[in-house]
Amino acid sequence: MKATQYIAAPDNLVSSEPNKFDAAKLRSEEMIINLGPQHPSTHGVLRLEVLSDGEIIKEVVPHIGYLHRCFEKHTESLPYNQIIPFVDRMDYLAAMNSEHAYAMGVERMLGITNQIPKRVEYIRVLVAELNRIASHLVGVGAYGLDLGAFTPFFWIMRDREHILRLLEWACGARMLYNYIWIGGLYYDLPVGFEQQCRAFITYFAPKAIELEQLLVDNKIFIDRTANVGVLPLNLAINCGATGPMLRGSGLRFDLRKVDGYSVYPEIDFEVPVGEGKMGTTGDCWDRTWVRVREIHESLHIISQCLDKLENECKRTREFDPQAIIPKKIRPQAQEIYVRAENPKGELGYYFRADGKSDIPFRCKVRACSFVNLSILPELCKGVLLADLIAILGSIDIVLGEVDR
Amino acid sequence: MPVSLIIDASTLHSVCEHLYNNTETYFDMLTCITGVDNGAEANSMEVIYHLYSIPFNHSLMLKVILPRENPEVETITTIWKSANWLEREVYDMFGIVFTNHPDLRRILMPADWKGYPLRKDYKHEETYRGIKIDS
């Protein structure tokens, strides 16, 4: 490191994130175990401070912020359209879904929601659902990896690669797309995309069933996850859980149905909920099962989108996905809260515009992983240390979104 | 479009308790807490609580306006557990103190960080622990 960048001093080597519990004040049977921030099963840079009595956990204190990139501060100096790449980098496993929610929010502020062409809306839903599958695949596969099932991880990476290639073909990037723009899209879908996408569905539908049989119906997996980390419904609602966390606890609540944004009201799909098939409703197995079922539902949505894109909303020579993108994005003075169903839960944006500039006065993100992770201390009281990893993995967090 | 309501900071806890318990409103979910700094000219800060009722499917923005010097408001973690981390984040970014909060520490920034980054007049330090901060 250059001398100008870093000044060496002994005081600088102290931990910047001190433990909540003081080791000197513990009782004789208690101890503090530190997990992370560089630990593969914490799914990123999450640090957990565990106060335990032998194998029993008394308290878990998550320490976050290691991946904090000042998203909300950045938005105070960027015009609306230039924020989209920053939005990608929050939940980097499901960037399309975040972009979709963001674009929807700004369009609602500008009052152009009704002018968006149907073809654009269907493409948005198509790519968002493809990304949802990719996100759930990583969630389920990495969860298997946490619990010692090595094979499913390779399988999901192989299948996810097909999705990433499809999205790369559509917009040029594998993970951070900048594809959905305010009022439209960057490009139309490439010629032949629909056929390739259908080929992917034909290939992937049996693979998803195979994954379910290999991992979720596996006896060892069930033994590790059933009746572990049970989240009762009233606690889930009180703690603000959303997405598969809430549905795993048995409430049929999906913003795609409840709010009916974009073209979701025109599409037929089911909302799977946890039923306690292998143990208690709301355990780790239920949450994983909900994710696997949602993969199948997303495939169903994608094939309906493809039907529309090949028939009613066909590609034409004149169609320009950038046609109604506003030249100047300057919403009137207002404040608005927009929410959408991300793979991991409810993603919300709070905007405040002052009506005088192209830059939001305040843009706040309600990150689903952040709120879902805050339930971890509640879930981990009195469980075994080995179950901590099982519970943490079932929450399916992305640290990029927790820390923003 | 959710309804917004501005209330006095001292009444926040009782209003929230009423909204939570009343069978006609029944706001069972606290979705989000936003802090807003209106800048030195307006000389005020806001805390916005986004409430949502699952059975009635309606949402409400509850606003509290605070002074910029020593902003304080009572915590609502006793009603909604999700308020715990959300309030910590607002404290971290704006320096708004939530009284009676069970565990009010910085959450995203390092524990020894100086200043509150999302205030409009925030100026960052030259160095942090010997590391030069680029602007």
General description of the model:
The complex is a heterodimer of chains A (about 400) and B (about 140). With about 400 residues, chain A is an alpha+beta fold. Chain A contains 15 helices and eight strands. Chain A has a three-stranded antiparallel β-sheet with strand order 1-2-3, with no helix packed on it. Chain A has a three-stranded antiparallel β-sheet with strand order 6-7-8. In chain A, a hairpin with a 2-residue loop joins strand 4 and strand 5. In chain A, helix 5 (about 150-170) runs antiparallel to helix 6 and helix 6 packs antiparallel against helix 11. The two termini of chain A are about 25 Å apart. Chain B is α/β, with parallel strands linked by helices and about 140 residues long. Chain B contains three helices and eight strands. Chain B has helices at about 10-20, 40, 85-95, and strands spanning about 5, 30-35, 45-55, 60-65, 70-75, 95-100, 125-130, 130. In chain B, the strands form three sheets. In chain B, strands 1-4-3-2 form a four-stranded mixed β-sheet. Chain B has a two-stranded parallel sheet with strand order 5-6. Chain B has a two-stranded antiparallel ribbon with strand order 7-8. In chain B, strand 3 and strand 4 form a beta hairpin. The model of chain B has no long low-confidence stretch (mean pLDDT about 85). The interface of A and B includes residues 348 and 404 of A.
The arrangement of helices and strands of chain B along the chain is EHEHEEEHEEE
Name the helicity range of chain A.
40-55%
Strand content of chain B: 25-35%
Which spans of chain B have pLDDT < 50 for at least 5 consecutive residues? none
Order of helices and strands of chain A: EEEHHHHHEEHHHHHHEEEHHHH
Q: Whole-Å distance between the termini of chain A?
A: 26 Å
Identify low-pLDDT runs of chain A: none
> Tally of extended strands of chain A?
8
Secondary structure class of chain A reads alpha+beta
Oligomeric state of this protein: heterodimer
Order of the strands making up the biggest sheet of chain A: 1-2-3
Q: Strand order within the widest sheet of chain B?
A: 1-4-3-2
Globally, the shape of chain B reads elongated
Mean pLDDT of chain A: 88
Structural class from helices and strands of chain B? alpha/beta
- How far apart the termini of chain B lie comes to 38 Å
Number of helices of chain B: 3
State Rg of chain A: 22 Å
**Proportion of β residues of chain A?**
5-15%
Mean pLDDT of chain B: 87
